[in-house]
Design a protein that fits this description.
Keywords: Cytoplasm, Magnesium, Metal-binding, Methyltransferase, Pantothenate biosynthesis, Transferase
Shape: globular
Bound molecules: 3-methyl-2-oxobutanoic acid
Cofactor: Mg(2+)
Pfam families: Pantoate_transf (PF02548)
Strand content: 5-15%
GO molecular function: 3-methyl-2-oxobutanoate hydroxymethyltransferase activity; magnesium ion binding; methyltransferase activity
Radius of gyration: 21 Å
Catalytic activity: (6R)-5,10-methylene-5,6,7,8-tetrahydrofolate + 3-methyl-2-oxobutanoate + H2O = 2-dehydropantoate + (6S)-5,6,7,8-tetrahydrofolate
């Protein structure tokens, strides 16, 4: 018999119960190896539709499909034993109404094993959030900057300064009232994010929204410094893997061209030793 207790995976009610406690730690993950790394340290692995830009070189998240989310969602859940997977509903998969949202959320959950979905939008999505949560689909909401609305917002701007502040507050309250188990606040001014956090009973998870949120999320490739050129103000780089990879690839290319790689130790003898 094993002496160690089995690891119980985190579920949405565990996240809601963390309101006001030790901050929730969330990173995006899109592949099995990254999910394994995230699993060791984080509460949630978010299969964000940012994967369209980060992994597939798309100009925005608009072109991400349900099939892409299912493929990457499956890869991520294979790498998790404790952290909870939350999977983004991509643009066009939920906005028509509750029935479309339910059909596609059910596919995401059934085909990936993720126990929760995330969708963008506030008051105008409340009916859909209520429909989903009443039918066994835990929803993480997402307000403030909602990247799928980049074309109506006119860019990836801060959302919630001055006259916009009340709308962000009302959006967050509407998502909570509709049954969301937590909510992402993206690129919301720090004072407003603190007021929203104080007003809600569900945890807020900030990205570019200050330290008063109940948790933080970053795109993993951003915080690992995988990109050499792109650096949003709200990202802290904890590593410089982009430069390390560049140096490693340059060294490999030089060694191949100089016939320094492969060395004798990387090859196989013609005869098996007796
Ligand atoms: O798609 C994503 O990665 C996200 C986070 C930035 C919150 O929605």
């Amino acid at each position: 018999m094993s002496a160690t207790a089995p690891v119980r995976p985190v579920l949405p009610p565990d996240i809601t119960a963390r309101k006001g406690g030790v901050p929730l730690v969330v990173l995006t993950a899109y592949t099995t190896p990254m999910a394994r790394l995230v699993d060791a340290h984080c509460d949630i692995a978010l299969v964000g539709d940012s994967l369209g830009m980060v992994l597939h070189g798309m100009p925005s998240t608009i072109g991400v499909t349900l099939e892409m989310m299912i493929l990457h969602g499956r890869a991520v859940t294979r790498g998790l034993s404790r952290a909870m997977a939350v999977i983004d509903m991509p643009f066009g998969s939920y906005e028509e109404g509750p029935a479309q949202a339910y059909r596609n959320a059910a596919r995401l959950m059934a085909e990936t094993g993720a126990p929760a979905v995330k969708l963008e939008g506030g008051q105008h999505m409340a009916e859909t959030i209520a429909f989903l949560t009443a039918r066994g689909v835990p929803v993480m909401a997402h307000v403030g900057l909602t990247p799928q609305a980049v074309n109506t917002l006119g860019g990836y701007k801060v959302v919630g300064r001055e006259a916009e502040a009340d709308k962000v507050m009302q959006d967050a309250l509407a998502c909570e009232a509709a049954g969301a188990f937590s909510i992402v606040l993206e690129k919301v001014p720090v004072g407003l994010a603190a007021r929203v956090t104080a007003a809600l009973k569900i945890p807020t998870i900030g990205i570019g929204a200050g330290v008063e949120c109940d948790g933080q999320v970053l795109v993993i490739d951003d915080m690992l410094g995988m990109f050499t050129e792109f650096r949003p103000k709200f990202v802290k780089r904890y590593a410089d893997l982009g430069h390390a990879a560049d140096e490693a690839i340059a060294a490999y290319a030089a060694e191949v061209r100089a016939r320094a790689f492969p060395g004798p130790e990387h090859g196989f003898a013609d005869q098996v030793k007796a």
